[in-house]
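Work Package 3 (structural annotation) set out to generate three-dimensional models for the target panel prioritized at the project kickoff. During this period the team completed the workflow that converts sequence records into discrete structure tokens, so that structures can be stored uniformly alongside our sequence database. As a representative example, we reproduce one entry of 258 residues exactly as it appears in the project archive.
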Amino acid sequence: MRYLLPITAFLIPISILTTSAQANDKQWFNSASYAHTEKTSFNSLRVNSAYYFTPQHNTGVWDDFGYLDTDSKVSVSYTDNDNNNFFSASGEAFYNNFFVSAAVSDLSEEDNHSIGFGYLYNDALKLSIQSRRSDNHSDKIWYQAQYNHQINDSDYLGVTVGIQDNPDDWMVSSRYFKKLAGGAYFSIDASHYNYVYSSSVTTVMANYYLNENLAFGLGLLDSRVQLEAKYFISDKYFYRIGYIDEGNMASISFNAYF
């Protein structure tokens, strides 16, 4: 019964929302997602809301707004699963090309937080340094560089590299986005995270946007196959359904952008 209301809430918007002929810039991004893992009977609900102080322009599809965050924003989220429930919050504030950031992973645990600062060069290169603390561990310093190569008005290639002061912890990720003929689009995301105290994770996900209303994705989470589908009711509202074969994990999310 605990998850009955969130699941029902995903179905309500279909009957009350109408499509929009023209996509507009967005500032307020909201999502509600529910996941169930059959193998372990594990359930998780997450609600997230992020507000940008400057309108964000999409890249041609209704859920992509470019690779780099270059504007001030605040976000809050609530997570409720079979093990725990907690609120999180984060923010990033720009002054000219400089910015500061802060995040609290669990508002009830003051040790789970990060704070940092950085510099944005030419809206293409974003450099930052963060001090991170979690679960009573000593502070760790995280260095990160993000670069966006704008190929043309629609296509881009983005790369992120990060490393902790303990060099055994590092990550690299990239995203390629391309406009195809006939109103179709293609994107591929790849990442590798290496953690000294836990297993490394490699993910690859490719998405093909048939048109402005429908997209399909196929990828790998290490050796596990991932599938996803997106249905866009309009430029403001869309659903995402996902599945991972190992553990039989299924998820659904409803997203609302304004």
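Confidence is low (pLDDT under 50) at residues 3-12, 14-22.
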